[in-house]
Amino acid sequence: MLQGMGTTTPARRTGRRTGDSGTRDAILDAALALFAERGYDGASIRAIASAAGVDPALIRHFFGDKDTLFATVVADRTAIPGIVGRAIGGDPATAGRAVTDAYLRLWEAPATRPVLLALVRSAVTSERAAQMLREILLTHTAQADPDRARRATLAGTHLLGVAVARHVVHLPPIADLTHDELVDEVAPTIQRYLTGTHR
Question: Domain HTH tetR-type: where (predicted)?
Answer without folding.
Answer: 21-81
